[in-house]
Amino acid sequence: MLESTFRSGLLAGKNAFVAGGTSGINLGIAEAFARYGARVAVMSRNQLKVDDAITHLSQWDKRAIGYVADVRDYAAVERALQNFHTNAGEIDLVVSGAAGNFLAPAAEMSANAFRTVVEIDLLGTFNVLRAAYALLRKPGASLISISAPQSTIVSYGQVHAAAAKAGVDMVTRSLAVEWGADGIRVNAIVPGPIDGMEGMARLAPTPAARKAVRASCPLGKFGNTEDVAGLALFLASDAGRYMTGTVTYCDGGQVLTMAGTLTPAAVKRMLASEG
Ligand code: COA
Q1: Which residues does the chain have with pLDDT short of 50?
Q2: 102 Cα nearest atom in ligand 1
């Protein structure tokens, strides 16, 4: 589908670093960047996932490279970015997508649990974008952070992710303002219900739950990783050259119905089924 939308050399000559790019939505973005001609690097905590992602991405980018680092560890993130810069040159595209989440009602959530998600999602986003700054192509770089509907819609059992992702939105906007003069664009994507993702499988495990998710979307269906990659391609390419500081939903319109699927009853059901 994307093939008919974007020309094949769209990102030729661009160097792209995708934090969290070894699975799910982020791997879908890394794949799209590679398919459209970028040289890609991915980073995650897990060596096996990095190895699998590189095998996959090598179909389109023989020089695809992977790094093992935790986004909470600034020095490790900086080392990975510097190594990519040394190998590939100035970095054109950065995606900060590493995230962690679990369901936990606030009254049962430890302070450490709250801190863990805030550190992965929010501090991790700042770390990746901040460490990239000195290595970016200026002007011209495009940075994309991955937010979530929780940043604006309150969902039961998600106080940590809500706080973290609201912070991600504001980091995105702040950096857009501060780095605009360097010719750096910074935007956020808010993926909606994307089929096949770990979180969605836990959120909507039954046909009835899947039907309810579809019904909450004006477009009446789940999205897929290619749908999110299409928005990332737009923001990464020249097509999005006047876009900065935006927080854009890619969710089939679900946010408009305000039909967050994490209702108290749904969360209690899920927690009970997890034992
Ligand atoms: N419910 C409540 N608390 C939880 C929890 C859950 N399901 N999972 C983790 N925590 C708490 C831990 O108990 C710990 O707090 P404590 O020290 O007070 O007990 C704290 O969170 C840190 O947990 P830990 O497992 O040590 O952190 P980690 O850095 O190794 O991993 C996650 C954190 C979020 C990555 C991990 O919980 C996880 O694997 N989540 C599911 C996978 C995932 O997040 N995928 C991405 C979806 S966007």
Answers
A1: none
A2: 7
